[in-house]
Amino acid sequence: SPPARAAALELLAPGVRLESPVVLSSVPSAAAREAELGLAGQGHAVCTNASAHRMRPDTPLVVPEVNPEAIETVSAQPWREQGGALVANPNCVVVGLAMACAPIERAFGIEAATVVTLQAISGAGLGGLGAMAVAGNVIPGIEGEEEKIGPELNKVLGARIEVAVAVHRVPVVDGHTAHVFLKLGHAASARDVTAVLKGFRPPAAARALPSLPVRPLVVRTEPDRPQPRLDADAANGMAVSVGRIRPAPAPHDVAFAVVAHNGVRGAAGACIANAELHVARYGVNRPGPVHGLPGVAAGTGAP
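RE: above sequence
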């Protein structure tokens, strides 16, 4: 049975035509493969948290603070004449990684990344791990997770970073942590990286969106931060916190920790922000742009 707060929701039979021009999708990937394409074909703007279509060449994989211009990819989608669109946000870990890595990649380049994640149990969903399986335990693997992170991170960043990943489920309720070790394209100190992260400001397109904070990237200087309990709720869960920025031994150059709320910034909030971005750029249920969005010029489609 659904949670009490969802008890009043109406479940519609498959195939029922929806009235809303914008659809937020968080169904399992197996169901999303067909359902999301059908909804887009009916003229709906589908903003999805599911992984089914993230790596389609014509599906923009968007983190608005990082690559808002990717939203232009919808203009090449086959259902665009009907006013439909399909926009995806990346995996919950990738949202935080992309926010932290984007300023570094643009300033210095990133050749390789080694990522170790400590992922909250809420990320397993309602049908996920039982309390006894994870209490006092660390589970060194999450089915299908490691395979997503590298390709999705590169698609969001428009990069070709060699990414090695080890994922873990840990007894934390909310908030995914990632420890990241980077090999940079150009020499930079930990102080340089810290300055770049502190100086990050989202592009104008992201600043125009009501769900996104003014400062989406928080740099912590304490030696024991960020922590999920203390930092996952930064900016109501929509900010990403970075800390422990320090030199790393060869072959890496710098290391740091990232914390993001997996259910908010990494999932529902990411989906809502993408819906806001799409509506700001294209309006509601119309086949072409209706007005400009700051920082996203018409006709500048992402590859």
